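Deliverable D5.2: sample structural annotation.
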Amino acid sequence: MSHFNHIDLVEFPAESVEQLQAAKEFFGQVFGWKFQDWGDHYADTADSGVSSGLIANAGARSRMPLAVVHVDDLEAAYEKVTGAGGTIVKEIFSFPGGRRFHFRDPAGNELAAWSE
């Protein structure tokens, strides 16, 4: 069964590495989530039901939680977003495991689309 076009990650922003660490401890204590660190500025978990991450990198994080949609063709998704009236916030960039871009929907919500 394909999971393309489904939200498969939610990122929660942190203002600093210290806040990221505090959030990891908080979610661990409250819900028992265990995190995988990817450097000092990012950690993710699959324990939250949908994959979720904590991001403290000021150049990469959003102001609000960010829903990330897994797509099979990143360039096609980019064209569909712009064709449907979405606004590109961050152009396509690479990260460990794939590539993605960020966009705003017509209501102003920021989301991202990614693919391997």
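Annotation notes: Strands lie at 6-13, 36-37, 42-45, 51-55, 66-70, 87-95, 98-104, 110-115. The CA atoms of residues 7 and 66 lie 10 Å apart.
The annotation will be released with the project's public dataset once the embargo ends.
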